[in-house]
Amino acid sequence: MSEPNPYADGDYTWGPAQQSGPGTPAGQPGPYTPGTPQYDFPPPTLADGQSFTPPGYGFPPPAQGYPPAPMGGPGPGGGAPLLAIGDITVTGDSIITPSGTMPLKGAVWNATDMSRTEEKIPTHAIVLAIVFGLLCLVGLFFLLMKEKRTTGFVQVMVTSGGRHHSTMIPAMGPESFQMVMGQINYARSLSNM
Description:
Radius of gyration: 31 Å
Low-confidence stretches: 71-78
Strand content: 25-35%
Oligomer: single chain
Strand order of the largest sheet: 1-2-3-4
Structural class: alpha+beta
Order of helices and strands: EEEEEHEEH
Largest sheet: 4 strands, antiparallel
Helix content: 10-25%
Mean pLDDT: 76
């Protein structure tokens, strides 16, 4: 494997395009500086020649009267999400919802359990009990089979800075409300800091 490639064309080498910088021998890559693009495409422009900056996606525009959420690193005061409950996102100092951005300090959180859990005997258990009921009453054991089914939602409401937002989270089981309440209690502790 130490032999040169017999199919190579001239001075071709592997890797990105070779750039010669000051003090760099020809054919050697130049020093990489962070922030400089490694491609030769011009920035996008509009038809009239003005430069084009695409809008920032992913965050709603800041609400009037409140400063926009900072876009720094993680931690208090940063823009990194700390918690997400449905479509409500909690960052270091703000609450981001589809209806706008609210201040985190002094927010009031509420949750309402709108789910229900039903327990019933499945249809196949009833059929098996009838079929095997004729054999020494063994089929009655099939009536002990139970099926639990949870339906509904957990409603989460947040109010802060004169704004209100509500979201519905589907209940996947009887423990869904306790899991959401754990997140609500964490959000309440962040609001009181």
